[in-house]
Structure formats: C-alpha cells, structure tokens
Amino acid sequence: MSYRLLALILALGLLSCGDSKTRTYENLPPEPQIEGGDRQGLVGEPLAFDGRASKDPDGTLASLTWDFGDGGQSSEAMASHTYLTAGSYTVTLTATDDVGASGSAVVRVSIAAKQVNQPPVPAILGDTTLEVAQLGSFDARGSTDPDGAIASYAWGFGDGATGTGTQVQHAWGRPGTYDITLVVTDNQGATATAKLTLVVQAKANRPPVADPGANKTAHPDEQVAFDGSASLDPDGTIASYEWDFGDGSTKATTALATHAYVAVGRYTVSLKVTDDQGATGTATAEVDVQPLAYSGTYAVNADPAEAWCSITKATWIPTQLVLTISGTTATADEIIPPDATPKIHYSGTWTEATRTFHMTGDFNEGMGIVHHFTYHGTFQGTDTFTGTDTEQVVSNGLPLCTIEWQVTGTR
Questions:
Q1: Looking at the structure, do residues 260 and 329 belong to the same domain, yes or no?
Q2: Beta bridge partners of 182
Q3: CA gap 317, 251 in Å, rounded
Q4: Is 382 found in the same domain as 310?
Q5: DSSP state of 334
Q6: Domain tally for the chain?
Q7: C-alpha span between 298 and 323 (Å, rounded)
Q8: How far apart are CA 395 and CA 150, in angstroms?
Q9: Range of 93's domain?
C-alpha cells in the first residue's frame, strides 16, 4: 500500500482495530503541454520550445524530456534547438510524474534551407581629375542590393576626410593621387567596397585678360590717352603692362599711357599684360588719326629791281601739311619803270575735309591797274594734291611779268 493511500485512509478514519480493509486507486498520467503548436524555422537558426505548462493532475512532475526528431534531446522545461538540415521533424515532449507514469505531446516543425544574403554592389560616379581646392562631386546612387536594400553609405577621400550619404563633395588641399572608397552596407549587415582613383593636379594658372579700352579718333600731334587699368587676372594679379602704339615708337610700360601720332593713318594699339605667374594676355584697339582742316595765307611778290617773281609764306603752316609754291622769272621785266612798285598778292585756303583748295589774288601795278584772279585746286588720290595756273601781268599793252605757280601738298 502506498503512503499516499495510507494517509488518505487514516484521514478518513477508515482504519481501526478489528477492521482491516485495503482499497486501490488508479494513478492519473501527467499532461505535457507544448506552447505555440506547429512551427517553421530555418536551417542554422535556433527554435525555442516551451513545456512549462505541462502538469500532473494527481501528483507532481518528475521530469520533462524533449525529442527534437533529429537525434537531439533536452530535459529543460524551456529548450532551444537548432536544425542543421532542412526537412520536416516531429518534436515530442514526454512528461513523467512522481509515480513513474508518463505522457507525451508532439508538434510538427518544418525547417527550410536558410537563404544566403547576397552582398550589395557599390557603384561610384564622380570626378577623376581635379585641381587643388577644386570641389569634386561623387555619386553612389547607382549602388544596388540584389536581395534587400542598402542601409548605409560610407566614404573615404584618401586624405583622412570621410563622408556619408549617396552624394558627397570634397576638395583636396594638395596635389597627388587619391583613392576614393565607398563602403555600402545592406539591411542584413553585408558590406562591399568600391574604389575610384582621383588625380589632383596643381592649380593651373589662368592667363590675365588685357583691356586697352575702346577705339579712338585723334589728330596729328594730339596726345591720346590710353587706360589699361580695366585689365584683370582671374586668379592673381597683373605684374606689368606693355603698350605698342603701332607706329614704331617707344613702348610704354604703365597702366595709364599717352602718345601723339605724327602722321595721319589708322594704327593698331596692342596692350600686353603679364600676371604674377608669368602668363600673358594681349588685346588691341584701333586709333584713327585724321588730318585737321588747315587754312593759311600766302603772298607772291614781283620785285622789278631783281626782275623775278617769288612766292613766300605769309603765315605758319602746320608740319603735317607742306605746301610748295613756286614762280618763274618775267620775260619783259626790263621795261618795268624803275620807280614802279608792282605787287602781286594772293591768299589761299584749303580744307582737306572737303578735298579742295581755293586761291584768290590780285596784282597792283602801282598805276591804278589791278588784275584779279581766282584758282581752285583739288586733292589727287589720298596723299597729295596739286594744281597749276598762270597769270600774265601787262602794262601799256606789253608783258610785264608772267607768273606761274604750282601748288602741291603731301600728308
């Protein structure tokens, strides 16, 4: 008789002297419980099993035993198991009570082969050649992950600097060759690296830009002002200026310069500027030197004592316009009375702007006889003008003096 049954009899007063009877009670088996029921898992990943809800209706549980169907076992109420092969398994939980009775419960487990995470594929698009201090741009948006998503982007610029994100910019302070690295990490922790080689060159000197100013119009002997101060150097300073005025004269070496042209004509003025690194820039402008509208007065004198006619200048002639006027000797000057003072006077004006020459004159015999004449000449071509005329002066019907003059001019 078990001690449990004896205790029960004593409690009920069923055992007394002179009355001895034996009764037998059936032990109830334990009831194992597996939380969660059937389940699925992956090869190599642990699965948890919970048998803590198991019980014995008429006693206590002595033990719990797990059989995972692949040879693996556990005696823990809460157990964990990892399957190494894909397939279907029957997991059995056996509960044993304190009198040796047992009961079992089962669940079905389906184990699938674990999918291997494929690493991401990084891609870099960006500059491969830069100058020192020039900002470079790099783009990783072409990176992909074949079985998930990219979680992060990490950049290294080869000079100790780093960056994050799909698009970055960076500038280098020294020339050299740098490896730009991109490390991408996917949503399952896999990483991959790409590299781009960048060459950083010393900053190229940009040449200066010369500015001699606008085209100009001037006259001979007029001082023309030139201003090159608008010239610039995009990445430094201008160290020197050199003006060539196009007429063979001495060059000027200052930003501001003046020059006078002697001859009429069109001249090309060249300004060359040199920057602080020796690079040069040149630009030109045109100067149109135009003649002035000159005018003057001349006199022709017939000297009876010398018996010849001469022409002299009565006023100053600009050096730019030279006139030559000549006369010839008289053929009958011996008949001029000794006391006669005949005079021939003429004056002329010329205007190159209209390309004409106009001359008027008179001859006074000294006896009240005055002869008047008029002469008009024109410029020939672009550089010279010429013309001739003859006036015969008579007295008492006889030739007194024949004057022939020729007017020529050059620029």
A1: no
A2: 155, 194
A3: 30
A4: yes
A5: G
A6: 4
A7: 10
A8: 124
A9: 39-112
Backbone angles phi, psi at 6, to 5 degrees: -65, -40
pLDDT at residue 343 in the model: 45
Quote the tokens at residue 169: 């910019």
Q: Is 158 left (phi over 0), alpha (psi -120 to 50) or beta?
A: left
Q: What is the pLDDT of residue 395?
A: 41
Q: With CA atoms as reference, report the closest residue to 410 among 386, 382, 384.
A: 384
CB atoms within 10 A of CB 56: 21
pTM, two decimals, is 0.40
Instruction: Report residue 144's pLDDT band, with 50, 70 and 90 as the boundaries.
Output: very high
- CA–CA separation, 343 and 300 (whole Å): 8
From CA 342, how far away is CA 396, in angstroms rounded? 14
Token couple for 4: 């449990």
Q: What is the DSSP letter of 215?
A: -
Q: Which two tokens stand for residue 168?
A: 């970055």
Cα separation of 64 and 380, whole Å? Answer: 135
What per-residue string of b and e applies to 88-115 under the rule 16 or more CB within 10 Å gives b? ebebbbbbbbebebebebebebebeeee
SS3 at position 240: strand
In this structure, the answer to whether residues 387 and 359 fall within a common structural domain is yes
DSSP structural state of residue 68: -
Place of tokens 């059989």: 67
- Contacts of 19-27 with C-beta under 8 Å, sequence gap 24+, read 27/58, 27/59, 27/97, 27/99, 27/101
Which residue do the tokens 């037998």 mark? 24
Contacts of 381 (CB under 8 A, 6+ apart): none
Terminal C-alpha separation, the chain = 158
CA-CA-CA-CA torsion sign (287, 291, 293, 297) = positive
User: Hunting for tokens 């001690």 — which residue is that?
Assistant: 3
Q: Which of 224, 142, 153 is nearest to 192 (CA)?
A: 153
Q: Note whether 357 and 258 are same-domain residues.
A: no
Question: Do residues 306 and 330 make contact, with C-beta atoms less than 8 angstroms apart?
Answer: no
Q: How confident is the model at residue 72 (pLDDT cuts 50, 70, 90)?
A: very high
The C-alpha atoms of residue 83 and residue 46 are separated, in whole angstroms, by 7
SS3 40: strand
Mind listing the pLDDT tens digit for each residue in 231-268?
999 999 999 999 999 999 999 999 999 999 998 899 99
User: Do 273 and 210 contact (CB within 8 A), yes or no?
Assistant: yes
Element counts in the chain: helices (H) and strands (E)? 1, 29
Give yes or no: residues 175 and 224 share one domain.
Answer: no
Residues 6+ away with beta carbon under 8 Å from 20: none
